[in-house]
Amino acid sequence: MMTTIQSLHELIASVNTMAPGLLSSDLDGNGTTDVSITAITQDSRAVGPGTLFCAVPGGTLDGHDFVDAAIDAGAAAVVVQRPTTSRVPEILTVDTRRATGYLAAAQSGQPTKHLDLIGVTGTNGKTSVVTLVAHIVRSCGDAAAAMGTLTGSLTTAAAPDFQRSLREHLVDGCSVVAAEISSHALDQQRIAGSDVSVAIFTNLSQDHLDYHADMEEYFEAKAQLFTAEFGADAVIDVSDPWGARLAERISELRATGAFPSDHELVVVDGAALIADAHLEQRSSTFTWRGHSIELPLGGSFSVTNAALAAEAAVILGYDEAAVAAALNVASPIPGRFESVDNGQPFAVVVDYSHTPASVAVAIESAREISDGRVIIVFGAAGDRDPGKRPLMGEAATTADIVYVTSDNPRTEDPDRIIDDVVVGIENSGHSPAEVHRVADRAEAIRSAITGALPGDIVVIAGKGHEDYQIVGTMRSDFDDREHARSALISLGWESAS
Questions:
Q1: How many CA atoms lie within 13 A of 172 on its CB side?
Q2: Around 53, how many Cα atoms within 13 Å sit in the side-chain half-sphere?
Q3: 193 with 261, same domain?
Q4: CA 288, CA 101: separation in Å to the nearest integer?
Q5: What is the pLDDT of residue 3?
């Protein structure tokens, strides 16, 4: 039976059972043999009475500098990488990030010992895969949950919040939780202390290079999910070159005994599945393991995402036929090639494509289902990897008409961001028929829809399910779907077909 640990000594003992030697168990000289722990945090602002504060060094701030403030706020004990105080019990560790993960898992009763955690990583497709995994499991009669960008402010929450959510889902009766696992989370040890039943790799393309030094470092962060530490079976899309590289690495490790040989490695050739699929705006028909799937989701990438989710479900023991039947009744995923239909004679889709690769795939998917022109509205984020911007522009050149606009400009000049994107269009060697610069995103959406002709398809890319925009330091309401619908209504299209 899962129980919540509240004794500091019990927490230390539990963690050192999971990861021997990670924490010092010597509390002598602190004046307290044991204390009760009510919460764990690495944010000194969240400390209250009974909190265990973990002093995590960061890129700009060091948690050790906030130990005294945490104690003043009521911290019952601290976890540190170097001695700082004798006012409360102080636990030494070589890695406070890693220790935070294990401590959070221990305090929550190690929920992944009692449910199957499906970890999904990759640049694009994580949200769709976790959503589909949860849907399949529910359709097969078991309770399941999805965790990620649709359920929280971060793709993967900080360790205490991550473990707390897992525990809550377990208490609610879930036997499976599918979670998006970001490269930041893996690098920062947010899921340390978790057992992962199945790890899924979708793809890798340039993103987050404002955090990672280069693509190699980005890949290695993702690859951590597929190590013996998490002990997961693996499902990998090998039509992606980084996925093929990861699968080859795992095969080599298994051959040398460095990776458990009894763990499954399932490869999916997403490109082959897509090549044989029949794609429409709101559906995709393809064959998986001999089963004909009529997936009610548009976009060629939905085929690969569905196959990855299905393979994970089979590893968990669900019947192939039941999995296939579940895919046939999947619900639309917010902001993932989501149609906005007011009865107009052209298509409008909103998609979360916000990387060069995903923009290219969104345009390709639109091209496959439309005989008319492909019109794309997109931008690039401010205060984020600027090297991605010209690549976004280059990716968009396969559209017929391009509207370069704002995404979340944050503290940068929107026009300067647009300049960076347009450089990629101009240097691509392939210029679309029309390129428009419209910094106001609402105006860009309205213009694109106003200029659409029967048979065209308008792809509004970048924000997907997000219902806000950040300009400067201000966050205001902004939903691409609502702005698209408003534009359609203004043109006289007021009823869905």
A1: 13
A2: 32
A3: yes
A4: 37
A5: 58
Closest CA to 378 of 299, 436, 326: 436
Domain match, 25 and 56 both: yes
Per-residue pLDDT at 2: 56
Same domain, 238 and 357: no
Return the CATH number at 416: 3.90.190.20
pLDDT number for residue 1: 43
Do 273 and 304 form a contact (C-beta atoms < 8 A)?
A: yes
pLDDT at 27: 58
Helix (H) or strand (E) holding 449: helix 441-450
133 and 52 in a common domain: no
Range of 162's domain? 112-327
Interatomic CA distance for residues 173 and 254, integer angstroms: 35
| Amino acid at site 8 | L
Please give the structure tokens belonging to residue 262. 């009894």
The reply to whether 305 and 182 lie within a common domain is yes
pLDDT of residue 31: 43
**Backbone angle region of 423, left / alpha / beta, with phi > 0 → left and psi within -120 to 50 → alpha:** alpha
Helix ranges (H only) for 145-196 are 159-171, 183-187
Q: Do 143 and 177 belong together in one domain?
A: yes
Confidence (pTM)? 0.91
Residues 169 and 100 in one domain: no
Both tokens assigned to 366: 């639109």
Three-class secondary structure of residue 386 per DSSP: coil
CA end-to-end span of the chain: 52
Answer yes or no: is 333 within a domain: no
Among residues 275, 273, 181, the alpha carbon closest in space to that of 227 is found at 181
Q: In this predicted model, what pLDDT tens digit does every residue of 457-477 receive, in sequence order? A: 999 999 999 999 999 999 999
Q: Are 431 and 397 in contact (CB under 8 A)?
A: yes
CA atoms within 13 A of residue 416's CA, in its CB half-sphere: 8
Nearest Cα to Cα of residue 432 among 351, 363, 354, 365: 363
Q: What pLDDT is recorded for position 153? A: 80
Final residue belonging to a domain, choices 297, 327, 357: 327
Q: From CA 198, how far away is CA 111, in angstroms rounded?
A: 15
Query: Looking at the 3D structure of the chain, how many domains does it have?
Result: 3
Shared domain check, 194 and 90: no
Regions of the chain short of the pLDDT cut 70: 1-4, 26-33, 496-497
Instruction: Give the domain-ending residue among 301, 327, 353.
Output: 327
**Inside any domain, residue 66:** yes
pLDDT tens, 412-434? 999 999 999 999 999 998 889 89
